[in-house]
Amino acid sequence: MTYGYSWGLLFLAGLLEIVFAIGLKSASGLQRPWLLLGTFVALAGSLTLLTLALRQLPIGTAYAVWTGIGAAGTALVGMYWLGDSVSFWRVVWLGMIVVSVAGLRWS
Length: 107
Hints:
mainly alpha; 4 helices
């Protein structure tokens, strides 16, 4: 497995982390068990891809990138599709997370 391939796996793991977080909200507790099942499938996929990426990437960097993609992505999806509040400073700080994740990738 190449270094670049590991970064691709990590990025996909981060995207599945977003699916997991949004799925938790969409499942409405146990009221929609099929969505809850899909949520846990996304989590399992995310953790599997993270584990594979960790074969090549340092744990501290990989974990920070994985959580950064998940946190920023979930917040952006929440603002765009779920009606979460949008403010200038919220967007600025989310942008800082994205810049930090990119900086970790290229450092």
